[in-house]
Amino acid sequence: MTFENPFYHIKENPVIIAGPCSAESKEQVLQTALEIKKDSRITVFRAGIWKPRTRPGNFEGVGKIGLSWLKEAKQITGLKLAVEVAKPHHVELALANDVDYLWIGARTVVNPFSVQEISEAVKGVKTTIFVKNPMTPDLGLWIGALERFNSVGIHNLAAVHRGFYQYKHDRYRNVPMWEIPIELKRNYPQLPIICDPSHIAGNRTLLLEISQKAMDLAMNGLMIETHINPDVALTDHFQQITPNTLSQLLDTLVYKRTDIQEKNNFLQLLRNEIDELDEQIIELLAKRMLKSNQIGQYKKENQITIFQLNRWKEVLNSRADIAEKKKLSKEFIATLFKLIHKESIRKQSE
Ligand code: PEP
Ligand code: MN
Questions:
Q1: pLDDT, tens digit, 9 for 90 and up, residues 205-214
Q2: Torsion from C-alpha of 284, 289, 294, 299, nearest 10 degrees
Q3: Is 299 in contact with 348 (CB distance < 8 Å)?
Q4: Second label for 269, Cα 20 to 30 Å away, from 82, 105, 149, 180?
Q5: Whose CA is nearest to atom 9 of ligand 1?
Q6: Residue owning the nearest CA to atom 8 of ligand 1
Q7: CA of 266 relative to ligand 1 center, distance in Å
Q8: Chain centroid to CA 123: how far?
Q9: Side-chain-side CA neighbours of residue 35 (13 Å)
Q10: Cα–Cα distance measured from residue 152 to residue 221, given in angstroms and rounded to the nearest whole number
């Protein structure tokens, strides 16, 4: 895929996108946009016009009329506009109303038919698409949607990380699974990734922590739901904050440098040490796998099952005990050994 930076003209870095979950009335849109405009770090105004609701009968967005309110907000404030589109018809209306960025929602990205249809609607158009991660933690699906846009000539692309659905909510409304956007960045270093802490958190209290984490991971921007009066918002009211609270959050954030220019600096020394340790870990794993292959051979010759429940329990428990003594998290070591065990079983089954 080839990318162009959709934010080349925005000098504020990271890019901050703010605005209500849903456009509700002309007053709410204009008042929120005017408040947001007071903070020059915020350059893009977002609002949902068509809302994908889990159950029918809830507020489903104001539709087309909301676009005229957004257009007016843009004329007054100069903020760029971002809107969710889920159908070719949405694309047509948004583009006719000067919307700068079209975003594809998490529920749409799971459906390649819909993504294909939308991509055909933007073919040949000079616009920018933000692709949210799909509801399910499937990197291939996320990349697939980006590819569909790329292949119709959309090079101005950004990914939006909004967390992944889980059946039982714990701390988060949508679990962040940071390793997935990191893997996306590893595959496509030129692709900007925006974090959406509002939909990850599902509440106001976690917004700062998630935003800081996104900055620590060198993400390129934040999309945060902002409403003039969050308590009465028609959608996602638990997670929306006022423009003023958003400015305070931005004041508190610590922006980190991503560039490391100095040679042989402290960081480089530590990295050299890590490189060596990693090599040792791999050597040990290779030795362990060799032993496991020998055991596999013995089991085969003596018609013993590959999987031995009691031995496996003993391995898991004893490794967790050792880990604890070394102040390593038990969960981390359990995950690691489950992976090693899975590979041993695969090799013994060959
Ligand atoms: C939204 O941004 O308001 C929204 C519906 O997001 P998502 O598609 O991430 O759920
Ligand atoms: Mn929302």
A1: 999 999 999 9
A2: 140
A3: yes
A4: 180
A5: 106
A6: 105
A7: 42
A8: 25
A9: 20
A10: 25
